[in-house]
Design a protein that fits this description.
The protein is 41% helix and 16% strand. By secondary structure, it is α/β, with parallel strands linked by helices. It has one domain (4-221): 2-enoyl-CoA Hydratase, Chain A, domain 1 (Alpha-Beta Complex), CATH 3.90.226. It has a six-stranded mixed sheet with strand order 1-2-3-5-7-10, with helices on both faces. Strands 4-6-8-9 form a four-stranded mixed sheet.
């Protein structure tokens, strides 16, 4: 059985159940927030499943009441994390999940935001617990997220994408399915079985035909402007102010005084 050492991230577990691999987000001390090594570890897990002839598919899920809230804004690494390449789009797992030949299913067990929601959206099928909640909070932190700008309008249409991105509001699993952010919601205690059922259904289809159909669908996302995204992270003061405000539990300084909400 592969473990955290093989994925290079202390906050991930990799388990096998017959031909199905489980990548489990398990960092309870930080509410399953992703370190860079965890992002890269999910990418490694996808590659591992695609290389292993004994594995046919992978399910990604979280622990407790959290799938993942996205990247860790307070800590850059965890003890046991292996070094990763320079921070950039190459460490991110989103397109690797999207393009995987082996089916990838997300089993969303709870809070799912930011990078966690991208993992769920770009899986072949996302099955969510009826307790799950969702949010796209990047703009609250001053972060230009190029993946969301490309992906979300394709899933939900431009009007809804504007709503979810620009308002950064929370929404529940029922609304997520209704809007087309994800495709399935089930009672919480049925989540594991429903995820396995989704994998089983996908694996009834022809692998080569499935690969071509996925490629055709994925072409609809178009180009993702990572150059602007990472230039903004380096050159703009907004991400630094947004992250500092988050850690200090205060509104960022760009919010007008008379419109400052309580911190989320």
């Amino acid at each position: 059985m592969a473990g955290a050492n093989e994925l290079g991230a202390a906050g991930l577990r990799f388990e096998r159940d017959g031909s199905i691999a489980w990548c489990i987000i398990d960092r309870p001390e930080a509410r399953n927030a992703f370190t860079p090594a965890m992002y890269f570890g999910i990418k490694r897990a996808v590659h591992l499943v695609n290389r292993d002839p004994d594995l046919a598919a992978m399910i990604i899920t979280g622990t407790g009441d959290v799938f993942s809230p996205g990247g860790d804004l307070g800590r850059r690494s965890n003890e046991g994390d292996e070094p990763v390449p320079d921070i950039g789009h190459d460490i991110l797992p989103f397109l690797t999940i999207r393009d995987s030949s082996a089916p990838v299913v997300a089993a969303v067990n709870g809070i799912c935001q930011a990078g966690g929601l991208l993992v769920a959206m770009l899986a072949d099928i996302c099955v969510a617990s009826d307790r799950a909640t969702f949010r796209v909070p990047e703009l609250l932190r001053g972060i230009v997220d190029a993946t969301y700008a490309a992906v979300l309008p394709v899933h939900v249409g431009m009007a809804v994408a504007r709503d979810l991105l620009l308002s950064a509001r929370r929404f529940d699993a029922e609304e997520a399915v209704r809007l087309g952010v994800i495709s399935r919601v089930v009672p919480h205690d049925q989540l594991r079985d429903a995820a396995v059922q989704a994998v089983t259904e996908i694996l009834q289809t022809g692998p080569l035909a499935r690969m071509h159909v996925k490629r055709m669908m994925n072409d609809r996302y178009g180009l993702i402007d990572y150059q602007t995204m990472f230039a903004s992270l380096e050159e703009s003061d907004e991400p630094r102010e947004g992250m500092l405000a988050f850690m200090e539990k205060r509104p960022p300084r760009w919010v007008p005084e008379d419109l400052q909400p309580s911190m989320p």
